[in-house]
Write a structure and sequence with these properties.
The chain has about 290 residues and is of the alpha+beta class. It has helices at about 10-25, 30-45, 75-90, 100, 115, 120-125, 125-130, 170-185, 205-215, 220-225, 230-245, 250-255; strands spanning about 50-55, 65-70, 110, 135-145, 150-160, 270-275, 280-285. It contains 12 helices and 7 strands.
């Protein structure tokens, strides 16, 4: 019987993967914006119900510190709460996948659920019956990428809806190659979660920032925005403080190789919550 062509990596599918990387790069100056686009795009591409994008420190040390987590896809708050309670209650080191994933020395680890569990063990496990099933999710792919030059790991979890068909090797391949392409650019073309966040700037200050990056003088920027030069200068000083710089040249250096941040790079249907010590974002819908 011929193999299902939908499981093959053909030219069209490879182009879709490349297009998603390009879309992510266009929001590269804003780490929250590009991670949100990545999560929405992967959800469509690999036909996942939920995609979770995270950042953590010291994953293989036994003392993992979560920095930020972004979730896309849950449309049932009760199911999402099941997952959040699990994350809050169970440290990364106590998850069943950790002993296997933390010992792999590669800079990029991408594994399907079937690489870590047999089907029989998965269906009998407490992880499936007590966590995934009540959360409305089932099969998964996990990918962990070491960020260049820092002890920070970038992670992506893609979850199928309960009782959907398992992920295919083609979908595993897509997660792997996209995460390698994206992960290798974090800290250069793509802003890291460790950098000052554009989302905490006001809309006016983002307008000022874009004019500065376009090369406008403060006088020109003030005229464009219809505000007094002294008010514009206050915004400039606030932007310098935000990025920890003291000159226009230092500010420009933050954006070398990155597109201008724009006024609103975030895709629609995104919201922000603060349930714990790190910032976590929840987004529903297809993106």
């Amino acid at each position: 019987m011929p193999a299902d062509r939908s499981h093959r990596v053909n030219a069209s599918f490879a182009r879709a993967c490349s297009a998603l990387v390009d879309e992510v790069r266009r929001s590269g100056a804003d780490s929250l914006a590009w991670e949100t686009r990545l999560a929405h795009g992967l959800r469509r591409l690999v036909r996942a119900k939920v995609v979770i994008v995270g950042n953590m420190r010291h994953f293989a040390s036994g003392h993992t510190e979560s920095l930020r987590s972004l979730r896309v896809g849950w449309d049932d708050p009760a199911q999402e709460r099941v997952w959040l309670e699990y994350v809050d209650r169970v440290p990364v080191e106590r998850t069943p996948e950790y002993p296997l994933l933390s010992k792999i020395p590669d800079r990029l680890i991408t594994r399907r659920r079937s690489h870590l569990w047999t089907d029989a063990d998965w269906r009998r496990s407490r992880t499936f019956n007590d966590i995934h099933k009540p959360a409305g999710i089932d099969d998964y792919i996990i990918s962990i990428r070491q960020q260049p030059g820092v002890s920070v790991q970038h992670s992506i979890w893609a979850h199928r809806a309960l009782d959907d068909a398992p992920f295919t090797r083609r979908e595993w391949w897509a997660m792997h190659v996209i995460h390698e392409a994206v992960g290798s650019r974090i800290g250069s073309e793509l802003a890291s979660c460790l950098e000052p966040q554009l989302g905490s700037l006001t809309t006016r200050r983002r307008e000022v920032l874009n004019l500065l990056l376009d090369g406008d003088s403060e006088k020109q920027a003030a005229a464009t925005l219809g505000i007094r030069p002294s008010t514009l200068h206050e915004h400039v000083l606030a932007i310098y403080r935000h990025f920890g710089v003291s000159s226009r040249a230092e500010l420009m250096a933050w954006f070398i190789g990155r597109p201008h941040p724009g006024i609103d790079n975030n895709p629609p249907n995104s919201g922000v919550e603060n349930p714990g010590p790190w910032r976590t974002i929840s987004s529903t819908g297809g993106g």
